[in-house]
Amino acid sequence: MNTPQSTSIPRRRWGIGALLGIGVLINYIDRIGLSVAAPQIQDLFKLSSVEMGLLFSAFAWSYAILQIPVGMVLDKFGPTKVGRYGAFLWGIASTITALSSGFAGIFFARILLGIAEAPAFPVSSKATGYWFPRKERGLATAIFDAAAKFSNVIGVPLVAVVVVSFGWRWGFALTAMLSFMYFFAFLIFYRDPSADPHLSRAELDYIQQGGAAPEGKADNGAIGMLGYLLRQTKVWGLTIGFAAYGYSFYLFLTWLPGYLVQTMHMSILKSAGYAAIPWVFATLTDLFVGGWLIDHLISRGCDESRVRKTVLIIGMLFGLAVFGATQTVDPVWAIFWISIALGGLASAAPVGWSLPSLIAPKGGAGTIGGIMNFVNNLMGAAAPIVTGYIVGATNSFTNAFFVAGIILLVGIISFVFVLGKIEPIAEPAVSQHS
């Protein structure tokens, strides 16, 4: 089969990739606002470490619970419709957050934000599968996944300046404005490839001939596809491994600024600056190791499954550097070890997010993404609560980081022994009643 050279065709797909990345960037600025404002909110409302852990986790509970239903809805209606409704609701949820007062109000608003943002990553993952050939899927996925890390580089300092200058409510007002701006951008620019009037025939052929995920619904219906996928060992290998990544990711996402304030005795602004350092490192490893390097090696003829799995496992092993942070009270060394850990995890993350569209049968990528992200975010909900209890009981983050390291070991074992070869799952038999 003759495939057009990628250098001789238009590159509209990369504009779509950038759009999806901007969406995830704003998504995560929404989420981290509470982490930055936490010391101010905790002091104002006299909240305990356990109560703060509950506030940190509220978003993750509703977000996690909706992942599988959202994945099924996404496989039925597609990224265009689901992405539009989701983006609009981000702005509504952030507006309500800005108007909340007290523990109960903020808790409710964070649950609502989790509902609003539940489709964000599955939409980006499925849309990337539609828009990119397999050999470009690494970098395309890394763009939106790295945006989640980069949000901590620009989002934490930005929100910190607003919170310190104008108060925590204005931090959430800022994220509401950004969310509505993205809604209008997505409404105007995003279409699936087959419906995009600005996509050339040459680029569409290049995308489809390169192994893009086929558009359309599953042949045996959403419920049938869910049941089929839940019986696949490969899906569970991916899910358990990615959930282990999610625990450490959410621990740092929610507690890193508080850790620096409490353990290293920093101000909010200083902690925001220090906290940005590991996320800079994570953004770079996400793009260049989890994205560019994978695509480069595959384009040079290396085995696709072996390349992706090697980066996945080595990245998780580097995540074990979190153990180093348990052995120091020096902020420079703590940031060093956390940077190594987050950098490793970030290089593995886009591999994880590329897998649903790479292993799914037709019409199943959203559902696999939903299953994976459901368990991932259950761990994400548990991480801040467990950390809050440990910190409250011991007045130290040492054991909290140790727990994260043990969970990472379980994830590495799952990726090595349960996931298997990265290749498409066989199509399910078509139901007579679909």
From TrEMBL:
Give the record's keywords alphabetically: Membrane, Transmembrane, Transmembrane helix
The highest taxon in the source lineage is: Bacteria
The record's section on Pfam families has:
MFS_1
- Its chief place of residence is membrane
Q: Where in the cell is it found?
A: Membrane
Q: Which residues are listed as membrane-spanning?
A: 12-29, 50-68, 88-113, 170-190, 235-256, 276-298, 310-329, 335-359, 371-391, 397-419
What CDD domains is this protein classified in? MFS_ExuT_GudP_like
Boundaries of each Major facilitator superfamily (MFS) profile domain copy?
16-423
Membrane disposition: Multi-pass membrane protein
Q: What PANTHER family does the database record attribute to this sequence?
A: FI19708P1-RELATED, SOLUTE CARRIER FAMILY 17
Name of the protein described by the UniProt record: MFS transporter
**Native organism:** Undibacterium griseum
